[in-house]
Amino acid sequence: MxxxxxxxxxxxxxxxxxxxxxxxxxxxNTRKGGGDIAELVVDEDQEAIFITFEDPEVAQNVITxxxxxxxxxxxxxxxxxxxxxxxxxxxxxxxxxxxxxxxRTVVFHIGQETSESEDTYALYFESPRHGGGEVExxxxxxxxxLVYITFEEPSVAQKVITxxxxxxxxxxxxxxxxxxxxxxxxxxxxxxxxxxxxxxxRTVVFHIGQETSESEDTYALFFESPRHGGGEVExxxxxxxxxLVYITFEEPSVAERVAGKTHRIAGRQVEVTLxxxxxxxxxxxxxxxxxxxxxxxxxxxxxxxxxxxxxxxxAEVLYGDEVGTVLVTFDxxxxxxxxxxxxxxxxxxxxxxxxxxxxxxxCLLVENLNDRTTEDTVELYFENKRSGGGAVEKVEMVPEExxxxxxxEDHEVLDGVLQKPHKIDGAQLSVKxxxxxxxxxGGSQDPTAFTAPKPVVMxxxxxxxxxxxxxxxxxxxxxxxxxxxSHAEVKFEGNNLSIACSLNPSVPKARILARTWATDVQxxxxxxxGMIDVLKRHLVQQIWPEVETVVRSANIASPKGAxxxxxxxxxxxxxxxxxxxxxxxxxxxxxxxxxxxxxAIEIREVKKTNT
Length: 611
Description:
By secondary structure, this protein is an alpha+beta fold.
């Protein structure tokens, strides 16, 4: 009699058995079809990992899905040879119709030649003189010459449309924007969101894989074809890192028609769905971000100005990495509209400041990573409930500094993550909240604070180029001077170059230079090394001894800017030097070597004849 209990164990093949922890993170992730794991066993004899789930239905789900970790395709099957139950897709009940929200967006035609920025429109429509109020969003459609202004209160939108408006010398006809109703994209793992007044969805998305070689034109032509239900395509965006393609149509109806169908593109079947852009994150009520502050503005002067334009005492002032950027925290919520109006009227030391709300951070800065920790491991770890995290939007690795930035889809999970200790691949991690607006330093209370960048290590530099730089004092001096001009000092460590920063607080604009120092010195060093050629000529091993003797005895003079090495173990000589000079030296050696080769062959032929 067959056991009525469905199997709850799966067998996983094709995975690196040494990384069982990563495998656990992956299959505990509900987005991968996984769930709570009761037991994980690594069987080296069978070269497989056996995973027993607490819920048998999870095992049934897992085997119906494709799985890939670290670039490897996994083979996942039920451990007991029983017929697997088909994967059940929970059908979504149609949402009950809700009362339509009052309209909060107005639209007007400004023409395609407009030069006004989003800030200009926001400040204009936040002015009470124009009947305005708190603006939630400004969207400019340059192709159609339209501007959409979304207010926080519907009453403001109603008031604005009754008044005359003139921006940039143009009279505007402002009307309420009534979007067409679009079917929301359904995610299995998400509950239906409450309906809001939104622009109709015009973008579809599908997964094509990271190895795709198709161009944007290929996708545009495919989805403009009536045979595929397509229409006029406005834009094509390819995210190669995630293997996703986004197609934006001019008409929402085309996107709706294309979505929900399977299409065959370049020999691959792809499932196309409507793309629902993520909702904007809420903002910190008590924080404002100011920009365009002069680098020499004293902190006391700035604080007095902030107090004047907001009517509040700044509780904290943090200077960001970007010049002129300051994040200010107040004891109470400041009035953004009034503050923006004051910034327009009153300059600070000749600068007109801009001000904006700050989205609540959804990012963590993770430091002290193990050298062997990969992006996949970090993502799986922080999506695992044991870390206190949730769905990860993206991970940005900074391997040279053993750190990364982890962006979550839901900002609310950050508090839970920060309350726990974290360890990956044996390394105890430092985890803290990251404010994107402040930059990688996290901000400083001192406008003159200076932190020297960490050294840059260029690994696996061509050993012949390193040997040439060591040997040629003139070229080496030029290399060192180029780096010195970029406030850098270099040390030769084997085939690696360790470049240290020589900036200090006494250097004018040291804080500004430090922000791009690492990128700048890598570019300078890379360009200089790129001007050095390494040219090789390999010879037949049997005649190498004779040729080597001739070349050595020829006393070929190396010109300034080039040299050569004889490499017996490779039966070759190598010319290294600045591009045109290296070629000239190679030609000289080739002349001597060719004559030596011909002579060696002739001698061998004579010996054969005599024997």
